[in-house]
Structure formats: C-alpha cells, structure tokens
C-alpha cells in the first residue's frame, strides 16, 4: 500500500530516483533535425536522439549540414534532465571560416541581428581583403589575447591592459588630452 508521501512526489522526484541528474556539460553529436526544426542530439548514456533547445545561431540550412556531418555538440541539461538537453556550442567544421575570417571577408549574413555585417572600405592590403573593417557593439567591444586586451566602451573610454604596453612611432608621436596624468 502506498503512503501519502508517495502520491505527492513530482515527476522530477521519480526521475532522480531512477536516474541521477546530468550536471555539467556533456559532449554529444548533432544527428538530425526534428519535424519542428529542433536539433536532434545524441549523447552517451542518453535515451537516443532527443530534440534540444538550441542556443547556437544557425539557420535551418546550416543546421541540416551540421546534422549531416554529425558534428560534435556541447550539451547542458535543464534541471539535470537528460530528456531536456540544451545545445550551447558546436564544433566548427574544419572547412568553415572562423568568425573573424567571416567578418574580414564581409560574409556575415546581411540583415541578421546576431552578427551585424561589418562596414568596410574597399582595397586589399597585406593579405587582408579590406583596408578598413569596422566592428560595432552596443555596450563594449573587447579584443583579447592572453594577458593583453583593448576595451572600447560606449562612453568613449578606451582601456589598454597588458603585462607590458609599448608604443612606437617612426615619426612624431603625439599625446593629447584635456588632462594628462602620469603615474
């Protein structure tokens, strides 16, 4: 006979008794696209291909290509439930250009809200297809490599950070400002 406590158990309680929650990230594969257009993912110990909510910016054609290649995907699980995967990252096809290459080539999709097409001025120089590339951001733009970074903020602040900051000029080097502080 069941106790009153048994009837008050939620579906989550039943799931956690029979299977431990999946905490942290798992690597799986994108194996298809559901009829609703959701990515179908498969992962070790999972119940088989499962539709996932995607947090990766891909149009339907790109999603189908990635599924056809059965590309690796990084998955998280909503409330640890293996039946509710979240697709948060995907391995890049080795033949696909990187985001930087796409920006430099001006091949970002026009009209897309995720990645604005860069404003460019024509003319190739030093193997860079454009002489000038303009990147934009709403609040802050950060370029970072290791310990070095350049941060541009909406309020006009520019931060240069690094272990060593060096400035060179073959001609005149000007430092201008309303107020200049040294040390």
Automatic annotation (TrEMBL):
It comes from the Bacteria. Residues 1-16 have a biased composition (Basic and acidic residues). This is DUF6484 domain-containing protein. InterPro entries: DUF6484. Residues 1-25, 105-128 are annotated as: Disordered. Residues 27-89 form the DUF6484 domain. It comes from Corallococcus llansteffanensis. Signal peptide: none annotated.
């Amino acid at each position: 006979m069941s106790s009153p406590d048994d009837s008050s158990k939620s579906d989550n309680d039943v799931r956690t008794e029979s299977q431990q929650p999946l905490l942290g990230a798992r690597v799986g594969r994108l194996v298809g696209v559901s009829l609703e257009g959701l990515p179908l993912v498969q992962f070790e110990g999972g119940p088989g291909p499962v539709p996932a909510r995607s947090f990766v910016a891909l149009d339907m054609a790109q999603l189908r290509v990635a599924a056809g290649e059965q590309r690796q995907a990084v998955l998280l699980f909503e409330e640890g439930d293996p039946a509710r995967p979240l697709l948060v990252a995907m391995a890049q096809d080795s033949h696909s250009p990187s985001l930087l290459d796409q920006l430099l080539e001006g091949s970002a999709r026009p009209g897309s809200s995720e990645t604005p097409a860069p404003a460019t001025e024509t003319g190739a120089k030093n193997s860079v297809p454009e002489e000038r590339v303009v990147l934009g951001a709403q609040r802050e733009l950060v370029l970072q490599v290791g310990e070095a970074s350049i941060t541009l903020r909406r309020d006009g602040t520019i931060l240069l950070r690094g272990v060593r900051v060096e400035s060179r000029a073959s001609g005149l080097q000007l430092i201008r400002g309303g107020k200049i502080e040294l040390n």
